[in-house]
Design a protein that fits this description.
With about 400 residues, this protein is an alpha/beta fold. The protein folds into two domains: about 230 residues, Crotonobetainyl-coa:carnitine coa-transferase, domain 1 (Rossmann fold, 3-Layer(aba) Sandwich); about 80 residues, formyl-coa transferase, domain 3, CATH 3.30.1540.10. It is built from 18 helices and 13 strands. The strands form four sheets. Strands 5-2-1-6-7-8 form a six-stranded parallel beta sheet, with helices on both faces. It has a three-stranded antiparallel beta sheet with strand order 9-10-11, covered by helices on one side. The chain has a two-stranded antiparallel ribbon with strand order 3-4. Helix 1 crosses helix 7, helix 6 packs across helix 8 and helix 7 crosses helix 8. The radius of gyration is 25 Å and the shape is elongated.
């Protein structure tokens, strides 16, 4: 008998994912499923592939860093499903898939091509079909195109972002795209779990706008209770003070006191017992309405030392605090290094590529970087062979522009 392998299995070993998406949200979701061990087949147009392959600079040779950042652990299959042969390829893949993810926004197009949920579920009742669009597949805006910034604008948070006296600010990361992918991951895993009991997959309908608006849940709840639209507070917290960025002698640091005991300890570290005893600042409710007065008092004291000195004192006292890093500083932080946050993996064009490791730490089924972000069509013949196509059939598909 062969010795049993001691290599840890991945959580989604044996799960086949058809990733029929491009840009950011869908590919990011597909990558996370791949990081968890799923076999993710990325379906791309033969004439250029995923639109993000052209987004840059920077590029490593011909390869976009943007594309490579969210497409590892996948195989690339070129497929023009506007052709009969291409539709057949996609349907064959969907027949075997556990999960299909698409960001095609028009239901009429999906039905015309026979790649809508109802059509595919008739052939494969176990498929979990995840739709990611700007506005969802119902409602008056269904079918309209939508990118992340559109969702950020409609989600209610842009007027609350940025300096207090400034225009509405877009968050620098595409948080509507990324949030939708995270909700997609949770929804798909839940649907796969439910399938274990029912034997059937289901339809998941996600929208960038709702995902973005959901991130305003605290501000929305406050408005629904008070009928008062929330005010912009910059880097401060609307309901907790002190909780934000504060200026020391040489720069800024973060201090976050979410409990009265932490506030009392902060006063001790600052050597300002008068703040703790001042009835204007005695409890959080009073501090919130006097945040500007409190900031002035705190920063007058913080100006006496460098930010690093204050951070050492605050950490010693167990007060939540931290530096404010740019990207290079974040990547060089010893804690991030200890967590293995940056990994290296070879790429046939980019060479040894550094990338962020998945932040999902599972003890028994760890995530892994198994595959580089694929070259366009790199695995087409391989996947078609697995779907039962013979070499002559593959050649005919190429001749007719189906793959």
């Amino acid at each position: 008998m062969a010795a049993e392998s001691t290599a840890p299995r991945s959580a989604l070993d044996g799960i086949l994912v058809a990733d029929v998406t491009q840009a950011l949200s869908g590919p990011y979701l597909g990558m996370m499923l791949g990081d968890l061990g799923a076999d993710v087949v990325k379906i791309e147009r033969p004439d250029g592939g995923d639109q993000s392959r052209g987004w840059g600079p920077p590029f490593a040779g011909s390869e976009s860093s943007y594309f490579m950042s969210v497409n590892r652990n996948k195989r690339s299959l070129t497929c023009n499903y506007r052709t009969p042969g291409g539709v057949d390829v996609l349907r064959r893949l969907a027949d075997r898939a556990d999960v299909l993810v698409t960001n095609e926004r028009r239901e009429s197009y999906r039905r015309r091509m026979g790649i809508d949920y109802e059509s595919l579920a008739q052939r494969n009742p176990r498929v979990v079909y995840c739709s990611i669009t700007g506005f969802g597949m119902t409602g008056p805006l269904a079918g309209m195109p939508g990118y992340d910034i559109v969702a950020q604008g409609m989600g209610g948070l842009m007027p609350l972002t940025g300096p207090i006296e400034a225009q509405p600010y877009r968050y620098p990361a595409s948080i509507a795209d990324l949030a939708t992918a995270l909700y997609g991951l949770g929804s798909i895993l839940a649907a796969l779990y439910a399938r274990e009991r029912t034997g059937r997959g289901q339809y998941v309908d996600l929208s960038l706008v709702e995902s973005q608006a959901w991130w305003g849940i605290i501000q929305v709840a406050a408005y629904l209770v008070s009928d008062e639209p929330p005010a912009k507070v910059g880097n401060d917290h609307p309901s907790i003070v002190p909780y934000g960025t504060f200026k020391a002698r040489d720069g800024y640091l973060v201090i976050a006191c979410g409990a009265e005991s932490l506030w009392e300890r902060l006063c001790d570290v600052l050597e300002m017992p008068e703040l703790r005893d001042d009835p204007r600042f005695h409890i959080n409710r009073e501090r919130v309405v006097r945040r500007d007065e409190l900031r002035e008092e705190m920063e007058r004291r913080l100006a006496a030392h460098r930010a690093s000195e204050w951070l050492a004192r605050l950490k010693a006292a167990g007060i939540p605090c931290g530096p404010i890093y740019d990207i290079p500083q974040m990547l060089s932080d010893e804690h991030m290094a200890a967590r293995g946050f940056v990994v290296e993996h070879p790429h046939p064009i980019a060479g040894m590529l550094r990338m962020l490791a998945p932040p999902l730490h599972l003890s028994e089924t760890p995530t892994r970087c198994r595959r580089h972000a694929p070259l366009l069509g790199e695995h087409t013949d391989e996947v078609l062979g697995e779907l039962g196509y013979l070499p002559g059939e593959i050649a005919r598909l190429r001749e007719e522009g189906a793959v």
